[in-house]
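Quick one: structure tokens for this chain, please?
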Amino acid sequence: MDTKCCPKCGIVQSLLSFSKKKSNKDGLQVHCKSCVRQYNIDYWQNKQRHQKERNREKQSAWVKQNREHRKQYQKAYYEKTAAKRRAASREWARKNRALCRAYCRKRTAKIKGASGWQYTTAQHIEQRWIFYGGKCWICGCVASAIDHVKPLDKGGSHFPANLRPVCKPCNSKKGTKWPL
């Protein structure tokens, strides 16, 4: 069987390892199939990298030239889609009431600088609710809200140990009193 040496890798291989090319004397490619494959991979990866760089440069140049136009477009798009975004947000809040309430409580605790706001989740609050049987911790009737036993305004935390279910009248009566 005839063999041929690939000038790129220097390995002597059978003629089956070379692709056909009629314009060459022997009718075969100069380089073996594996060297040609590797060359093509390297070429296209390099080309894609340069293309990305050129695109990035073009895009940044366009942004600089059209800053005001882009600002106006974004503002118009924001105003145009505002109702749709609000509706989607309301729909999500309707479907995820517990998560929404937990998020609001967590945000309030964060704003007031209470410790534990990063830790407490909706599952923790649900566990506290189950622990108290859904009853108000003050009077024992059906609870409708979560109360901070030591109010956030008085330095209370947002850890689960400071959270208890409470009914609306007791929550309103208690307010931010501490100690009870």
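Helices lie at 33-65, 67-95, 97-111, 122-131, 168-174.
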